Automatic annotation (TrEMBL):
GO terms for molecular function: asparaginyl-tRNA synthase (glutamine-hydrolyzing) activity; ATP binding; glutaminyl-tRNA synthase (glutamine-hydrolyzing) activity; transferase activity. It is an enzyme of class 6 (ligase). It holds the Pfam family GatC. It comes from Leucobacter komagatae. HAMAP family: GatC. Keywords: ATP-binding, Ligase, Nucleotide-binding, Protein biosynthesis, Transferase. Its EC number is 6.3.5.-. This is Aspartyl/glutamyl-tRNA(Asn/Gln) amidotransferase subunit C. The keyword Zinc does not apply. Belongs to the GatC family. Heterotrimer of A, B and C subunits. It catalyses: L-glutamyl-tRNA(Gln) + L-glutamine + ATP + H2O = L-glutaminyl-tRNA(Gln) + L-glutamate + ADP + phosphate + H(+); L-aspartyl-tRNA(Asn) + L-glutamine + ATP + H2O = L-asparaginyl-tRNA(Asn) + L-glutamate + ADP + phosphate + 2 H(+).
């Protein structure tokens, strides 16, 4: 990784970097690429790629139809309502 490459990549990403930032990133990116190359050397076709060391599974419940609140029950404890909806104060500073 060279300073010119880092500066070129920064230009493509539209990131303004100082000369000292370019030098620092050159060292860091070179180290990262070296480590990736080391991992690539030991990766073999007989070892499947994984994202986690142990298998993961989602814990979900069955989506079952149940009794739901009526509109009046849902709005019964609201401090303010309007036209069957919760009424809240404007967060943008103007009424919509």
């Amino acid at each position: 990784m060279t300073a010119d490459t880092v500066a070129h990549l920064a230009g493509l990403a539209r990131i303004a970097l100082t000369d000292s930032e370019v030098e620092g990133l050159t060292t860091e990116l070179d180290s990262i690429l070296t480590n990736i190359a080391k991992v690539s050397e030991v990766a073999t076709d007989d070892v499947p790629a994984t994202s986690h060391p142990i298998p993961l599974s989602n814990v979900t419940r069955v989506d079952e139809v149940a009794d739901v609140l009526t509109l009046d029950e849902a709005l019964s404890n609201a401090p303010a309502t309007a036209d069957g909806m919760f009424r809240v104060s404007s967060i943008l500073g103007e009424e919509q």
